[in-house]
Amino acid sequence: MKIAVVGTGYVGLVTGTCFAETGNYVTCIDIDHRKVEKLSNGQITIYEPGLEKIFLRNLKEGRLDFTTDLASGIKDAAIIFLALPTPPGEDGSADLKYVLGVARDLGKILTDYVVVVDKSTVPVGTAEKVHAAISENYNGPFDVVSNPEFLREGVAVDDFMKPDRVVVGTRSERARKSMTELYAPFVRSGNPVIFMDERSAELTKYAANSFLATKISFMNEVAQLCERLGADVDMVRRGIGSDDRIGKRFLFPGIGYGGSCFPKDVQALVKSSGEVGYEFKILEAVMDVNERQKLHLIPKVSQYFGGELAGKHFALWGLAFKPNTDDIREAPALYMIDALLEAGATVSAFDPEAMANVKALYGDRVKFAENQYDALESADALLIATEWNEFRTPDFMRIVKSLKNKAIFDGRNLFDVDAVKELGFHYESIGRAPSK
User: Fold this and answer.
1) In order along the chain (436 residues), what is the average pLDDT of each group of 10 residues?
2) What's the rounded Cα separation, in Å, for the pair 115 and 4?
3) Less Cβ crowding at N or C end of the chain, within 10 Å?
4) Does 18 qualify as catalytic in the annotation?
5) CB-CB contact of 165 with 192 (8 Å)
6) Is the domain of 261 the same as that of 356?
7) Which residue range forms the structural domain that includes residue 257?
8) Cβ of 264: how many Cβ atoms within 10 Å?
9) How far apart are CA 296 and CA 161, in angstroms?
10) Can you tell me the distance from the alpha carbon of 27 to that of 2, in angstroms, rounded to the nearest whole number?
11) Active-site position among 18, 28, 226, 261
């Protein structure tokens, strides 16, 4: 099948590459000439484990190509995916200018039946707006389908190739047949393709991400209570996570969620709720808890140093909002850096993948280390913001030799409290008693 994907960001590039991997011929379209040139020359533009290998294979075998020309890119395509940015607007709702702009352009060049798929995360009612935008310039046959993505950064290729489920919003039998054929190779093990109306599919994506964000903020609230009551949040997590009705995932406390999805999607759903006269109070609380949680470590650090952070130098491990990605959007690490710099402290940071992105924001206001141990040199304490695997079992003796104080403030609960205590560290984490 010939597929076109408009947009080569995170979702678009993963989508196009994975569809090519199952034998489809995919053209990805983007207005950024430099990005298209890089991709055409085999230079991948995002970091995602496992993606580069299949990207290069399908590029070499001619099943994947890139262009800046929309008309040539969609030529002969049976399905056109819109994987375009939907950034939050000033009022918190998703901005559809890119999606609707491309829809209008499609209306000017379509000549035959095609299925146009909203792959971007979009508010309820967007499929109707896309249909109307295309119809401004085209009165031929076409269908608009909602097909939200549920990709987790860091494991996106596995998520796409072996999905838990595929959600498709359409009331058209013709579009349903095309989407069934397209996704058949991905659901051979029996996981469902769930068909529903377009509005329900659009809401499903927001509801899923908002529920997961709620689980995270709930556990961070429990962690706050554990610190005040002398309980251990890890024990509580294990106790409730073993209940099948609750499940084990997304129950790890920390310094809040970030990234491109949860913050934006929760905010957008609250906004959409308000537009129809409903106050989504739970999600308003979720956002408030998450915003406060990002700086949860800073008062602990300040107290350790007697309320004076000016002139102190801190090592920071982790900059991405989660491991196995270079995505720093809404990353808690950035909030911590801002707070430390504002207090007059300095920061030396290390992250396996995200340092270039952070350097573009901070320049020489932050020092960037060659590795995690170089970041420790002459630091007054170590702060941990991202749970990269290489941070989980460090050489503590090297940490001792480099730090001025044996002090670690861990926003991801990487270490066993008793084990670190035996080494003589002052160790504070989330929802667990400090070792002093």
Assistant:
1) 96 97 98 97 94 97 98 97 90 89 97 96 95 96 97 93 97 98 96 97 96 98 97 97 96 94 92 95 97 97 96 98 94 98 98 97 97 97 97 96 96 96 95 90
2) 10
3) C
4) no
5) yes
6) no
7) 205-292
8) 20
9) 37
10) 8
11) 261
